[in-house]
């Protein structure tokens, strides 16, 4: 059993973030989630936060620290998509996705870092995507933002690795969530044909990896990219 920690999951009001928060609660951790709307699972503290606004993130952390203590595990999961082909993609569609998915992660991890250093313990878990390294038509903005998280985690490992702080990346493949449910039947069939496991993943399968990375046994794993994609992105 892992030592109970204070965990913050961004975007913990639905999908993968919600499942990770649920699992962390089941593991005995004190769990807070950030959300723009809605709430995290029962037993979690929900705080409002906007990933594009440092002041909003700072306020969210201050609230969590007051109620649950210093944040020890950060799960940067909040993200958006604005899919369209390069020639049609506006600059705003590119920069807004990068601002939420990448710069938002920077804002969150920077705000957490002082507390992690003070406690000489930290687990930074970044949610990337198989398309970060595999690529996907119509997702130049999204895949760029997700690929960048690998460099982020590895640089953070080199900066803070000697202080008991790890930084790792989970790269989910096609997971059954609200986002995949929006795909047409033809698209779903097409994607399934490319996945060696021949099925979509479940949010609980992502949550299990996050649970492991947050735990005591993962203290010597840092700068890793862990694919949870049924074999889709092998070698990427």
From TrEMBL:
Segment forming the signal sequence: none
Keyword annotations of the record: Oxidoreductase
Gene3D superfamilies the record matches: NAD(P)-binding Rossmann-like Domain
Pfam families linked: adh_short_C2
Annotated GO MF terms: oxidoreductase activity
Classification via InterPro entries: KR_dom (IPR057326), NAD(P)-bd_dom_sf (IPR036291), SDR (IPR050259), SDR_fam (IPR002347)
Residue intervals of the Ketoreductase domain: 5-178
The organism's place on the tree of life at top rank: Bacteria
Statement: the UniProt record of this protein carries the keyword Cell wall biogenesis/degradation: no
Family: Belongs to the short-chain dehydrogenases/reductases (SDR) family.
Name of this protein: 3-oxoacyl-[acyl-carrier-protein] reductase
């Amino acid at each position: 059993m892992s030592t109970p920690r204070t965990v913050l999951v961004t975007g913990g009001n639905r999908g993968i973030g919600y499942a990770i928060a649920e699992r962390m609660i089941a593991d005995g951790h004190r769990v807070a989630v950030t959300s723009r709307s809605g709430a995290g699972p029962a037993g979690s503290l929900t705080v409002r936060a906007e990933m594009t606004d440092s002041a909003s993130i700072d306020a969210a952390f201050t609230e969590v620290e007051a109620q649950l203590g210093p944040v020890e595990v950060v799960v940067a999961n909040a993200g958006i998509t604005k899919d369209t082909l390069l020639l049609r993609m506006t600059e705003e569609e590119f920069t807004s996705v990068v601002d939420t998915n990448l710069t938002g992660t920077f804002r969150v991890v920077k705000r957490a870092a002082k507390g992690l250093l003070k406690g000489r313990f930290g687990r930074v878990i970044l949610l990337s995507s198989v398309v970060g390294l595999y690529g996907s038509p119509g997702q130049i903005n999204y895949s760029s933002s997700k690929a960048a998280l690998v460099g982020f985690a590895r640089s953070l490992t080199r900066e803070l690795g000697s202080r008991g702080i790890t930084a790792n990346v989970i790269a989910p493949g096609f997971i059954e969530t609200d986002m995949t449910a929006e795909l047409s039947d033809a698209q779903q069939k097409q994607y399934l044909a490319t996945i060696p496991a021949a099925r979509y993943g479940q949010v609980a399968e992502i949550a299990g990896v996050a649970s492991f990375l947050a735990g005591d046994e993962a203290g010597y794993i840092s700068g890793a990219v862990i694919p949870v994609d049924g074999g889709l992105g092998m070698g990427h």
